[in-house]
Amino acid sequence: MTLFSRRSALRAIGLAATLLASVGVAAVSAQDRTSVKIGYAISKTGANAGGAGITTLPNYQLWVHEVNEAGGLEMPDGTRLPIEVIEYDDRSASEEVVRAVERLATQDQVDFILPPWGTGFNLAVAPLFDRFGYPQLAVSSVTDKAPEFVERWNKSFWMLGGGHDYTEALAEILTAQKEAGTINNDVAVISVADGFGIDLITAARQSFADAGINIAYDVTYPVGTTDFTPMLNEAAASGADTFVAFSYPPDTFALTQQAQVAAYNPKVLYLGVGVGFPVYAANNGDKIEGIMSLGGIDVNNQAVMDYRARHTDFIGQAPDWWGSVVTYNSLQMLEEAIKRRGLDREAVSEELSTGTFETVLGEVKLEDNQLRTLWFGGQWQDGNFVAVAPLTAKAQLRPSCPRPPGPRSKAATHPLNLMFSVSSPRRGGGRGGALDYSMQY
Amino acid sequence: MITTLITGLVLGGTYALVAMGLTLQYGISRIMNLAYGEILIFAAFAAFLLFSTLGINPILGLAIVLPVAFFFGYVIYGVMMQPLVTRSSKSGTLEVDSILATFGLLFVIQGAMLVVFGSNYTSYNFLNTGINVLGANVAANRLLAFALAVIIGATLFFVLTRTRWGTTIRAIAVNPNAAPLVGIDVTRTARFAFALGTTLAASGGVMISMYQTFNASMGVVFTMKALVIVIMGGLGNLMGALVAGLLLGVVETLVATYVDPGLTLAATYLIFLGVLLWKPAGLFGKAAGR
Fold this sequence. Notes:
The complex is a heterodimer of chains A (441) and B (290). Chain A is α/β, with parallel strands linked by helices and 441 residues long. Chain A folds into 2 domains: 35-162 and 301-365, Rossmann fold (3-Layer(aba) Sandwich); 163-298 and 375-409, Response regulator (Rossmann fold, 3-Layer(aba) Sandwich). Helix content of chain A is 43%, strand content 16%. The radius of gyration of chain A is 23 Å and the shape is elongated. Mean pLDDT of chain A is 79; it is low at 19-30 and 406-441. By secondary structure, chain B is mostly helical. In chain B, helix 1 (2-27) packs antiparallel against helix 9 (238-259), helix 3 (58-91) packs antiparallel against helix 7 (186-211) and helix 5 (140-162) packs antiparallel against helix 9. The chains are: A alpha/beta (441), B mainly alpha (290). Chain B: Keywords: Amino-acid transport, Cell membrane, Membrane, Transmembrane, Transmembrane helix, Transport.
C-alpha cells in the first residue's frame, strides 16, 4: 500500500511538473520573445564525427546562417525572430546524446531540437523527442522499420528510406543489366559487421533472392579492417561480374584504391557510404567513373545545384551526394512549417506530417511521416554522382554499365537505354506514383 | 598461397612500423604513451598538408616531419614526463602516472587536430600503383611501408645490440636505478629514446597516410594495435615488434582468405592470448634482457 501511494504521489508530482512546464512554455511564447532557441546534440568528436561533419552539421550551420541573414525565422504574423543555437557535442557516445537532448528539453527549454547523426543515435533519442513533444526530423538514419516507429512516436519523421529501398533499387539495376546481356547473374558481396552493413546485407540477400540474382561470394568483415586484398581476390575468383560492398567511409576509400592496385575491374562496382563524399572525387579523379553507391543527385535540378554552390561557399567544402541535400530539405520544411503554424510544436508536427512543402528538392509531401520520393542509387558519371535509381522514376540519366575497364576512358557515358517496366512491391506505403519533384528539366 | 603470404607480410609491415616507436617509448623510456596514436595521426595530417598544399611528396615530407617529431618528443619528455620520472623514483608509480598524463595529452592533441583539421575523413592518393611481387599485386605504397619497417627494425635492432650506445639504452631499460652507477645519464638517454619513439610514430603516420583513410579521432585504433604488437613482441624489443607485426599481418590475411574475414579480429586476439599464456614476456622477451 505504501508503494502504491508513493507511486501515485510521484505520478501527481510528475503531472504537476508537466503542467507547470507547459504553462511555462505558453507563458514564454505569449510574451515578447527576441529569438527562437534551436538546439542539437551532434558528434563533433569521436567515431561518428567523420559522418556528422559531412552530412549533418554543415547543413545545420548553413541553414541557421541563411535564416539569420534573412532576419530570422518568419512567424505566422509576418515578424521574424533570429535563431539562437544551443549546440552540444555528444562525443559519439549514445549516453551523451540522450543526456544532451534531455538537457535541451528540460534545462535549456529550446523551441525545437534538431536530430543527431546516425541511425542508432536517432533511435536512442526518439523516445525523448516523443516524451517532450518535439518533432524529430531524422535524416541520417536508414531504417526499414520507419512505419513502426511512426506508429510508436507520432512526431518522428524518417527521411532517408530503409535498407530494402536501396537494395531493391540495386537489384532492379542489376536485373536490367542482366537482361541487356551486360553482366552475368553472379554477385560478390562484402559487408561491414556493424549497423549499416548488417541492415543492408540482410535486405540485399532478400532483394537479390527475389530478383533471382545469385550471390556467389558473401562475407562480412569487422569494423576497422584496412586490408581488403584477400576479399577482392576471392571476389575476383568467384567469377561474379558485380561487386557490392556495404562499407563505411574508410573501407570504401580503401576498397577503391585496393581494387585499382589489384587490377580488379568488375563490370558493376557498387560501394557503400563514402562514395558520395567530396573527398572521394578529389582523391580518385576520373578513376571513379561508373562506380555506384547509395543516394545520388539529380544534376538537372537547378535548385539542388544552387544549394551545392552555397554550401561550398559558406562551409568551404562541397556537400556529400546523398544525405546532405535531404538534411537541408528537412530544415527548409521545418522553417516553412514554423512560418505557417508558429512555435507550437504540436501544430508544427502536424503541419510537417500533412503539409506540402516547396524545398530544394522541389515539391515535397511526406507519406506516413516518411520521405519516399528519394534517389536510392547513384553513379559517378563525368564528375557528378548522378541519380540513376529507382529506374521507375523518370530520371533522365541511366546507369551506364559496364564501368570503364581502366582510368581515363571516356566511353562510359553512352547510356544503355533500358526501357522496361518494373513493378516492385513495397512495404510501408509504396512510393505513391512517380516522383513528384525535380525531374522535368 | 604465396599471394596470400605476400599480402599478409606487407600488411604486417604496416603493423610493425606502427608498433616499433611504442616499443621504444614503453620498453626503454618506460612511458606508456597513450597519445602515441594521436602523434601518428598528426604526422599523417602533416604529410597530407605538405602534399596537398605545397605539393611535397610524402617521402620527401619525411625529411620535414621526422625532425619536427623528434623535437616534439624531446620537448614533451622534458616538460611532461621528466617531473613524473623524478617523482616516481621514490614512489615507483611511473607507469600509472605516465598513463594518466598521456591520456590527457591524447585529448589535447586530438582537440587541437579537431580544431585545425576538422573531423572529416582525410585521404589522398600517392604511389597507389600495383607492383607485381612473385605473382601478387601489391600496392607500391604498402610495399614501401614494409621496406621501411624492415629497415628501421633491423637497423635499430643491430644498433641496440651491437653498439656501445645501444648497450647504454638497454641498460636503462633493464635497470634505470643502477645505470647511473656506471656513468650513464639516465635522463638524457630516456629522453632520447622517447624522442626516437615519437619519430618512429611520425614515420608510421606518414607512411599510413599514403594508403589509409584517417581522421582526427582515429589515433586510439593505432595505439591499441601497437600495444598488442609491443606486448606480443616483448617490451622494448624492436625485432620482436617486427616479427609480431608481420605475424599478425600474415595470420589476419590467412584467416580472411581461408576462414572468414569476420574472424580476423578474433584471430588477432587469440594469438595475443596464446603468446601471453605461453611466453608472458612476449615472443622475444628475454632478448631485451628482462
